[in-house]
Amino acid sequence: MRPPTHILVVNGVKVRRPVFVVAAPHSGADLLSRALKRSPGFHVTMGRGPVARVVHAFARRPSIARSGGAPQVLRDVLAEAWQVVPAACAECTATCREAGGIVGAGPCVGPGALSRFGDASPDLLYSVPVLLRAFPDARLIQIIRDGRDVVADMLADPACMTWVKPHMLSEDAEFPNPFLGVRSAEHRERWAGMPPAGKCALRWRGAVRLSAALRRELPGEHLLTLRYEDMVASPGEAIDAVSSFLESKISTIALYGRTIPRPGSWRRRLSAEDAELVEKVTRDELARLGYR
């Protein structure tokens, strides 16, 4: 007998077709999330503390994500993040608050106008199997960006650099480890001795391999893939694609006027040695994705 469909109600609204933006670090998830957050009826969170802790637990230990209780844990933590109460935004990250245009404690939305919920927490990509079990009608938007530009941004981000320290791949780490991009325990010492640029390249490679698997496995009505470069070059066309996919009017203005790294900026931001290493690690994926 088929189990009953779980119904989640937040702020008096049934959560239907929630939207999740997934990508490798610094691939543009925050850029698209800004547009979603500023669209009528949408409530999109980005990196709330409790959500981030669950997401990183699933990312670092996939066996936890495969447990029977994982979907309920993720539903509960997202439901709490989506609650609209006084001072709700005080717990949000600076990125989320800025994207929502928050001054003070918030909240960033009014509960009476809500119709769609979503999340774009960093590293949410690694929780996609749990998301789909928790929300079978979810809509996923994944963003792909040139791995060399991604690495250049990661190297400049202290938060990303905390994940490349040797102790992050501890003796009790699980393999394969898509989060750090390491396939087996045999590569542990090799990973530990790599320069930071190489470790960042492995993270990007692992992420885009997961993204490729999603494109093979999910039907078109559940997954939309965008390129960062297309969002930057043609914001209107990118948002039109998102609006059609979500069957909702999405704000375009949030993509204009942003000071963001331009495609190809890795050429001046990466040293010759780092660029060579990144291209060596990611050669196959760069070619498959059409990055010359």
Description:
The protein folds into 2 domains: 180 residues, Rossmann fold; 103 residues, no CATH class. The longest helix is centred in the C-terminal third of the chain and has 22 residues. Strand 1 and strand 2 form a beta hairpin. The chain has 292 residues and is of the alpha/beta class. The strands form 2 sheets. It has a 5-stranded parallel sheet with strand order 4-5-3-6-7, sandwiched between helices. Strands 1-2 form a two-stranded antiparallel ribbon. It contains 14 helices and 7 strands. InterPro entries: P-loop_NTPase. This is Sulfotransferase. Pfam families: Sulfotransfer_3 (PF13469).
Strand order of the biggest β-sheet: 4-5-3-6-7
Query: Which residues sit in consecutive blocks of at least 5 with pLDDT less than 50?
Result: none
- Tell me how many strands there are: 7
- Structural class comes to alpha/beta
The CATH C-level class name of the largest domain: Alpha Beta
Pfam families: Sulfotransfer_3
Protein name: Sulfotransferase
